[in-house]
């Protein structure tokens, strides 16, 4: 039963790919634990602990499950890879509607490269939109945690601080997208699928 795994580890090229993929997964999990700049992490942790024992504990547990714990912690990778998945679906649907996209699809590899580039641009735009939404909720945590007594979880509520948090979360999504593409090129399996699973 373990012989295929042992054979894979003994093959130098495959071992290198497996170790590379595991390294990317570990890096992804570390990024999911690092809070964004400007977040009062101890206060946020206290609110999360209170929320996990309250009436909506199942909802918060579900959100935590699907984000790997990153979303409710407002971490650097809080948005995750979902903007990329959404962008890929949108670009796929636009192929039917926009004739230029249909032509690109028929061009082969060069057209596919161009479509991938459009998907990346749309991913960044969606990441900016989603991170701004999360920061809006973070500015008013009472609406997020249904707790009227909870105070602010951001150190500063200035425009610079908010822009910095949005840029950090957007950059986190861009980094995840790049890591997923690296795993697809140099690792084992489809990188985006592995990061979604992680």
């Amino acid at each position: 039963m373990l012989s295929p795994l042992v054979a894979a580890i003994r093959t130098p090229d495959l071992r290198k790919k497996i170790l590379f993929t595991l390294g990317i997964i570990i890096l992804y999990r570390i990024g999911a634990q690092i809070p964004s700049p400007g977040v009062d992490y101890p206060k946020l942790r206290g609110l999360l602990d209170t929320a996990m024992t309250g009436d909506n504990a199942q909802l918060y547990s579900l959100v935590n499950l699907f984000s790997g714990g990153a979303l409710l912690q407002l971490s650097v990778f809080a948005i995750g890879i979902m903007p990329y998945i959404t962008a890929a679906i949108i670009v796929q649907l636009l192929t039917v509607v926009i004739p230029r996209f249909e032509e690109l699809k028929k061009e082969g590899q060069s057209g596919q490269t161009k479509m991938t580039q459009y998907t990346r641009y749309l991913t960044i735009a969606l990441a900016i939109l989603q991170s701004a939404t999360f920061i809006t909720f973070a500015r008013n945590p009472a609406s997020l945690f249904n707790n009227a007594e909870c105070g602010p979880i951001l150190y500063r509520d200035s425009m610079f601080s908010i822009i910095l948090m949005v840029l950090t979360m957007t950059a986190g999504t861009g980094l995840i997208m790049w890591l997923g593409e690296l795993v697809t090129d140099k690792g084992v399996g489809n990188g985006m699928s592995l990061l979604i699973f992680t």
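The radius of gyration is 20 Å. The mean pLDDT is 81.
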